[in-house]
Amino acid sequence: MKMRVGSPVRPASLKAWIKQLMATPLAAAIIALLLLLAGVVFTLQVDRIGRTEKLRQASVQAQILASGIAAPLAFGDEATLREYLEALRADPQIIAVGAYDATGRFVAGYNVVPTRLPDHGRLAEPAMTARDLTVTAAVVQGGTRLGTVYLRATLDSWQRRATRYAGLAAIVLMASLLIATLGASYASLHEAHARLQEETASRQQAEEALRQSQKMEALGQLTGGVAHDFNNLLMVASGSLDLMDRTDDPARLDRLKAGIRHAVDRGAKLTQQLLAFSRRSPLKAEVVDLGDRIRGMDTLLDRLTTNGISLKTSIASNLWPVEIDPSELEVALLNVVINARDAMPQGGLVTISAENLPGDGGAPDQVRIAISDTGTGIPPDVLDRIFEPFFTTKGAGHGTGLGLSQVYGFVRASGGDIQVESVPGQGTRITLLLPRSTLSPIRSQPEQPVVEAASKRRILLVEDNDTVAEMVGGMLDEIGYEQERAASGDEALVRLEQGANFALVLSDMIMPGKLNGLDLVHEIGRRWPRMPAVLMTGFSEASISARGEGIPLLTKPFSIQSLSAQINDTLSRS
Amino acid sequence: MRGPRLAVLMLCAMFVGLWTAHARAAPLEQAVKASFLFKFAPFVEWPDNGAGAGKPFTICVVGEDPFGATLDEVVRGQRISGRSVNVRRLGDSGNAAGCQMLFAGRSSSAGYAPFAAVAGQPVLTVSDQKSGVQGSMIQFVMQAGRVRFQIDEGAARSNGLVISSKLLGLAISVERK
């Protein structure tokens, strides 16, 4: 036979066990039963107290009688004595009363048949049986015992007493029933709740899986698009190189070189945006003039305005500067305008406006950029969700659901705010509010000249990739520096120990071997504190810590101009 | 000779029978009175209750004693307010000092004034109407063949005695002056 009830319970799971037990109909039944039991005990107790009270009452009655009949008993006035005794007949519960003189002889009394009076009067302890109780009292006057009184009274029959407690019993029964019912319903509710939780959990899992697959889809789209763009760029570059081989016309060569340069620039920009998209690039906040930035996007924006869509920009003069990441701003504006365009399949007008919004009542000054369209609008039920990542109303394969989420992330990261107003059928207006910066904007300098080396100085180039090393080496030669290459951080240390007279170390960030670029710079700083170092990186996560330490940094891909300028800066500072 | 002697004998027998009957009735009446006499005490409060503690409670009989041994029977082994009870027979003119209760029987002596000696003292005076003694606080009377009593509550009060209303309620008459 299996024992189930007595199975041992570990203390750790005791709480859970109790919790589980509480949710069963059995527990409710036990509680109801306990209540019933308590009711019974309470009733018995009250009954017992009632009987004791009755006994006390009878004793007092006997005492009063004894005191009253003292004189009639002493002097044999039976008429008066009988009067006293007969008065007690008014109480139907008193079934026998007797008065006895000092010698115990019966003097007077009455009894209801079949009760009998004792023949001889004597003092006795109060006695109580199930049906009646007997008390005696001494008749004492002035300290002299003159006789005894005998009194017998019935107790309520158990039927009468049961009737008296019927009300209480009904209440207790009903409460027990209520508890049992509540317990049962609670148990079923608990079960339903557990089922619901399970269901919610599984649904959340399914949603997570769906989200993941949507993300993969978005990634697929993105990589597809990027591959397409890159193919175009590569086509331009390789085609131009082919054409360069076939011509000697300097003018045509220049044009071809310019084309290649343009393609490579766009490629660099594309990877920059990819990094931004993957959120590995920190916001590179700059103080900019929004007007300049928006006007600079004209060509990009123009390409979106086809199929009967026209674009109007209205930018107030004297816009306050704002501190933002310009490339993120461009991506954000493009995302909003693309959404505006997609909302107008029949064509329409997109208006980009920018103006100052002076703060009042403690609110800070802000610059407001508003993009409004005359499109289909956003249904109110999805208005709350448009900034959620991967939320899209466009069909599968058309949108990633990341556009407006990027806009939201950019605005919030820039300390600004975003507002959406939309009237279905009339259009949408998205407003970006960016806080005013107290600094003045840096004018971008379009083309810097190459800073030629002031003197022939030796530079240690640490780079594991041969092609990159050759290319950077060529640039250094071009600028006018002598250079020597080490293929790893460890090798670089060996070269430095050999004492070749280097003026600067230019190192890649990610390299094979024990030391990466950052470790190498630390080691150099420790052993040769006067030796300046510049790090090159194409990967921005590592660059965050380098930037935090104040190490000069060149972000790949870089031009010969920025290389020359960075080296010149670093050398002149040290 | 025989006839008159018989008649005398018969007469004697009749007398004896009558006497016996009388003698039978009289002791019962006297016994009840003796019992009552003792039982008055619990219903009366003496002013110097505390002072008499330790000493026996004394019932004195002056003049002829109608109870004889009956009274001694009644009080034997009894206690009043924790005091043992003592009966003292004073004769016609004994000293009533130390008595709490004074019963006066009949007397043939001239100038018999049994309660004069205890006038103004807290002594409960009792007498029997039959004996013709006047001036007691409680007086036995016969009523419908039963022993009853009447109480002069005013006299008791003026002598510092408090008689319980229970006893007063049982008296056939109460003098309150």
Automatic annotation (TrEMBL), chain B:
The keyword Signal applies. Pfam families: DUF4154 (PF13689). InterPro entries: YfiR/HmsC-like (IPR025293). Residues 1-25 form the signal peptide. Keywords: Signal. This is DUF4154 domain-containing protein.
